[in-house]
Specification:
The chain is 9% helix and 56% strand. By secondary structure, the chain is mainly beta. It has one domain: Jelly Rolls (Sandwich). A five-stranded antiparallel sheet has the order 1-11-4-8-7, with no helix packed on it. The radius of gyration is 17 Å and the shape is globular.
Length: 153
């Protein structure tokens, strides 16, 4: 009985997000993202579609700046670059210092940065993400993730 109720809750939670194709996070050791630490996400697309690529950032109040700059590179299985750019996102209000983003538990906040929209074929891809801040290590970064979702026509 308890097992059936648990399964029902899981189905309800996961069925709510029908746009999601892939969502994965990588934990940042010691909550400190080193400047040379490029995070790689191998992605497997199982059907051709138009998709949106996002970078997800999870931080806490130890993050020392109001915003973050990241650089991403999206490659296909042959290594051909399909997209790359620098993106920025405010994690805290620049004037008040109030945290932005979706609040999870306590002092943890989630942010989503749109990277690009494109038509993809079935196959393997790789998304590489690195920070481009003037600090050797960014404290307060807990996880960096990727999300691929259906992007429509």
């Amino acid at each position: 009985m308890m097992r059936a109720a648990f399964f029902s809750v899981l189905v309800a939670l996961f069925s709510c997000d029908q746009k999601r194709i892939i969502e994965e996070y990588k934990n940042i050791p010691n909550n400190s993202w080193a400047v040379g630490d490029t995070i790689r996400f191998p992605l497997s697309i199982i059907a051709p579609d138009t998709v949106n690529f996002y970078c997800n950032i999870r931080n806490n109040l130890d993050y020392p700046f109001s915003r973050i700059f990241i650089h991403y590179t999206l490659c296909d299985s042959s290594g051909r670059i399909l997209g790359k750019a620098m993106k920025e996102r405010y994690l805290f209000d620049a004037k008040t210092g109030e945290p932005l983003g979706q609040s999870g538990v306590g002092d943890v906040f989630d942010h989503q940065l749109f990277l690009q929209k494109m038509r993809v074929a079935k196959g393997s891809y790789q998304l590489k993400i690195a920070h481009k801040m003037r600090s050797d290590a960014l404290s307060g970064i807990l996880d960096v993730g990727v999300r691929v979702e259906k992007g429509g026509k």
